Amino acid sequence: MPIPMSPVLRAHGLRKSFQGAVALDGVSLTVKPGEAVAVCGPAGAGKSTLLRCLAGDLRPDRGRVLLADGRPVDGLDVVTRRRLRVVLRHDEIDPRRTGADNVALPLVRGGVRPDTARQAALALLGALGLSGLSGRWTWQLSEAEAQAVAIARALVVNPSVVFADEPTATMAPAAGHAVTELLVRATTRAGAALVLATRDAQAARWCRRIVDLHKGRIIEPTLPSFAALAG
Ligand SMILES: Nc1ncnc2c1ncn2[C@@H]1O[C@H](COP(=O)(O)OP(=O)(O)OP(=O)(O)O)[C@@H](O)[C@H]1O
């Protein structure tokens, strides 16, 4: 019998307003270990606000986000929070470094020896089928390639959860869908949960679970995920 796993995050009754305008209106959401969850909805639905509350970067007016051990996520110190979760940001890729050196950077900053960190980065890029990006200067990369490097860099520290807020918003649909597929495959392979905010209902379908957000509330999803269709 499988051992039931406690959720990585459990959010209950999240409410958040900005200058009287309601952004989140009572959102409850549980994220299980290794689960890919898409938060889908139109502009202004509250996706970014929800991700920031879940990541502990924004304090909700009401409701709580708890970790598996019951600690509130917004009460964690910065170091613990960084170890627990990463926020995917390709704009933080350093253009003066190669792909591998960018991926190695969080380990080096965490005190790992540079050559050990580089080996780990090369191994991860290889495992993700991205060896071709290892030696390339990142200023030369396309947006999709830079995002692929950012995905590897997010995962090199073995986070429990990766938060990605519209990571493909400015890409052409084909490139964006390829990056989303890589993001879901890579986080699943690493055993990390993924919370992906997107306006793109098709991209959301790469995730096992789709949560539709509308005017700060969760509504019934309109499209099933590919994984759910596959059974
Ligand atoms: N810092 C802020 N100050 C004021 N209003 C804000 C702030 N952040 C979000 N809002 C408002 O809260 C609502 C939800 O915004 P949010 O960015 O969470 O939506 P979203 O679904 O991520 O939208 P988008 O797809 O455009 O990024 C919007 O009406 C937005 O204008």
From TrEMBL:
Keywords: ATP-binding, Nucleotide-binding. It comes from the Bacteria. GO terms for cellular component: plasma membrane. It comes from Longimycelium tulufanense. The keyword S-adenosyl-L-methionine does not apply. Residues 9-229 form the ABC transporter domain. GO terms for molecular function: ATP binding; ATP hydrolysis activity; transmembrane transporter activity. This is ABC transporter ATP-binding protein. Pfam families: ABC_tran (PF00005).
